[in-house]
Amino acid sequence: MKKMDDLSPHELYAIMQLRNEVFVVEQNCVYQDADNKDPLCYHLMGWSDDKLEAYSRIIPPGVAYIEPSIGRVVTSPSARGGGIGKQLMEQSINQVLKLFGTTSVKIGAQVYLLNFYSNLGFLQTSAIYLEDGIEHVEMVKS
After folding, report:
1. Taking the chain, what is the end-to-end CA distance rounded to the nearest angstrom?
2. Domain ranges of the chain
3. DSSP per residue over 13-59, as a string?
């Protein structure tokens, strides 16, 4: 896990490439990924050899929500099906606790992943809303 200033150009490029591959191309969603939050966040990366297979953004309290949060959770299509997404979220939650102490964690989850996040202890705290044309809900893990 690194702050943005500590990322190498190779790491930053791999992060942006994976986020674009999944969020823009695979999900067919045109949106502004560079949202000015990255410089304030921690970036958790899961590598296999030289390929970035999993990534999440740890967002400090007050940046996206009052609580710390986890966002831009993404796994490479070639790495899915082996539990890497669950490992990524478990590590992300652990890092939030390590960085910010015992507190709740808030996420904005795509609705189709509601069961995935519920199985990790997150509870739905909002009605469904559209973000960039995709249904989302807010969820909190205490």
Report:
1. 22
2. 2-141
3. HHHHHHHIIIIIIITT-------S-GGGSEEEEEEETTEEEEEEEEE
**Token couple for 116:** 């995935």
Give pLDDT tens digits for 90-121: 999 999 999 999 779 999 999 999 999 999 99
Task: Read off the tokens for 41.
Answer: 């966040």
Of 72, 104, 70, nearest to 90 by C-alpha is 70
The two three-digit tokens of residue 67, written as one number: 């609580």
- The residue with greater pLDDT, 33 or 7, is 7
Q: What fold characterizes domain 2-141?
A: Aminopeptidase (3.40.630)
Q: At 32, is the pLDDT very low, low, confident or very high (cuts 50, 70, 90)?
A: confident
Q: What is the rounded CA–CA span in Å between residue 7 and residue 1?
A: 9
